[in-house]
Write a structure and sequence with these properties.
3 helices, alpha+beta, four-stranded antiparallel sheet
Length: 100
């Protein structure tokens, strides 16, 4: 088992990933991000926080190692976690912000 820290917009969470199930580090971080957004959606009681448009995941102890930090659009993590409607909404919101 490896512990990954996933950070969003003003929040972070630890996620345990069974590294025996994955061959690639990138796949482990993708799973950690999917689990993190699911935890955020089901456990978030602080309305002041937002999920954010990007997520960062890294193995515990490797925050300052650029080779261990993986960045992902929240939209992709939402799709990976099965939240397709929220992923679409996230993509549309980002398009709106970029146009401004």
């Amino acid at each position: 088992m490896k512990t990954f820290i996933v950070e969003g917009n003003g929040w972070k969470v630890d996620v345990e990933i069974d590294d025996d199930n994955y061959d690639k580090y990138k796949d482990m971080t993708a799973e950690a991000m999917a689990q993190a957004v699911a935890m955020y959606l089901h456990n978030s009681d602080d309305e002041a926080k937002s999920m954010g448009f990007i997520l960062v995941a890294y193995e515990r102890g490797y925050k300052d190692d650029p080779n261990k930090n993986v960045v992902c659009m929240t939209e992709h993590a939402l799709r990976n976690a099965g939240y397709y409607t929220l992923a679409d909404e996230s993509a549309e919101a980002l398009k709106y912000i970029i146009k401004k």
